[in-house]
Design goal:
The complex is a heterodimer. By secondary structure, chain A is mainly beta. Chain A has one domain. Chain A contains one helix and 14 strands. Chain B has one domain: Immunoglobulin-like (Sandwich), CATH 2.60.40. Chain B has two helices and eleven strands; from the N terminus they run H-E-E-E-E-E-E-E-E-E-E-E-H. In chain B, strands 3, 5, 6, 8, 10 and 11 form a six-stranded mixed beta sheet that branches. A four-stranded antiparallel beta sheet of chain B has the order 2-4-9-7, with no helix packed on it. In chain B, a hairpin with a 5-residue loop joins strand 10 and strand 11. Classes of the chains: A mainly beta, B alpha+beta. At the A-B interface, helix 1, strand 1, strand 2, strand 3 and strand 13 of A face helix 1, strand 1, strand 2, strand 3 and strand 4 of B. Strand 3 of chain A pairs antiparallel with strand 1 of chain B.
């Protein structure tokens, strides 16, 4: 019996001595490649649109309408850009009251619409007037429909259009954010 | 007259202030590098780490937040599928403060579960970096992360190793047993 126990203990020790280095060793080399020294960057020359008081069911446009803000590609790689909006929230109590951002640029009770138009782009949008709805789903800003990406130092001018809800609770300061994003093309 | 006053009151009630905050308004100019990261031959069960650099080009310190984003098929690189689970990617914290005119490195960790079904994958996901802002317009920059896993899962090679250890123990045990029994017989 003593021989059996001693044999098993010796066998375990010997097996572990030979196998532990193998267990600790990485089985494969992992390759991490950073593509060149590319850095990505875009800038906007305007980030605020102080509207003041607004009336219900009314359209507001930036001034100038389509050359209000300039997006510039600052990094050293070509980029594709996107745009996304969100619900407008009451600043004093965001969870208590909001305007829902519509999915097609139209409005309704407590539902508002946002659209953008890029300078020189006259055919885009459902009405063919160049205005494209900004929704809560990230959509193409530039390029669109397989067009050319933006190269370093390229610029795009654009403007915004707001359509206020047909009905809303007055006297409340609302706040929203539109995010323009970029990824290497 | 009363009717006019009522109408004016109704219009006033419908008015609301749609104001982006002015007080915290400031442009943010920043960059992220690298713009694209490839991780190849990552065996399921292993962890890969890399650094993202955020360069705050402004005169003020800013907080930057991190997100992951699943791009649509049209936006992904050719042959890349959707990254199976964005919880496999982790940042050291959800946000980081970067001093004015300086850079900060953020270590991003990618950990693929040790399961055979994740072997041989070619996936893509985007890592988003945004500067905290209360302005109407904000900027988010994405770095493309392309991950390829090793076709032979690490789990399988470890299973073979464990089987080898067990077989070794049995063989050595038997050998030892006969050796001691024989030794005892002679004594």
């Amino acid at each position: 019996m003593k021989a059996v126990i001693t044999s098993i203990v010796v066998a375990i020790i010997l097996a572990l001595i030979f196998s532990l280095p193998a267990l600790a060793q990485d089985s494969d080399a992992i390759t991490i490649t950073m593509t060149g020294v590319n850095d990505i960057s875009i800038s906007l020359d305007k980030t605020q649109w102080p509207l003041g008081e607004v009336a219900a069911d009314t359209e507001y446009m930036t001034s100038p309408p389509i050359e209000w803000c300039t997006l510039t590609v600052e990094g050293n790689c070509n980029v594709n850009t996107f745009i996304v909006g969100e619900d407008a929230e009451w600043i004093d109590n965001p969870s208590a009251y909001k305007w829902t951002l519509s999915s097609d640029g139209t409005n309704g009770d407590n539902v508002y619409g946002l659209q953008f138009r890029i300078s020189g782009d006259t055919t885009r949008g459902s009405l063919g007037d160049g205005y494209v709805p900004i929704t809560k789903t990230e959509g193409e800003f530039w390029p669109y429909s397989g067009g050319s990406s933006l190269a370093p130092e390229d610029t795009k001018q654009f403007g915004l259009k707001l359509l206020t809800p047909t009905y809303f609770v007055g006297g409340r300061q609302m706040q929203t954010q539109i995010t323009i994003s970029a990824v290497a093309a | 007259m009363i009717r006019h006053i009522k109408l004016a009151g109704l219009i006033a009630a419908l008015l609301v202030i749609f104001l982006p905050s002015f007080t915290l308004a400031q442009d943010v100019n920043f960059s992220v590098s690298p713009a694209e990261i490839h991780i190849d031959d990552l065996p399921p069960g292993e962890v890969a780490e890399f650094k993202l650099t955020i360069h705050n080009k402004e005169e003020l310190a800013h907080n930057f937040t991190f997100t992951t984003f699943q791009p649509s098929e049209e936006e992904r690189r050719e042959g890349r599928a959707e990254f199976p689970d964005d919880s496999w990617i982790s940042f050291p914290s959800q946000e980081i403060e970067v001093a004015s005119n300086s850079e900060a490195n953020v270590t991003v960790t990618v950990a693929i579960p040790r399961e055979q079904k994740w072997a041989g994958g070619d996936w893509e996901i985007w890592l988003g970096v945004a500067a905290e802002s209360s302005d109407l317009l904000a900027v988010r920059l994405y770095a493309r992360l392309l991950v390829s896993t090793n076709p032979a899962a690490d789990a399988r090679s470890n299973a073979g190793l464990v089987a080898g250890i067990v077989a070794g123990i049995v063989l050595l045990g038997c050998g030892g047993y006969y050796y001691f029994r024989r030794k005892a017989k002679f004594e």
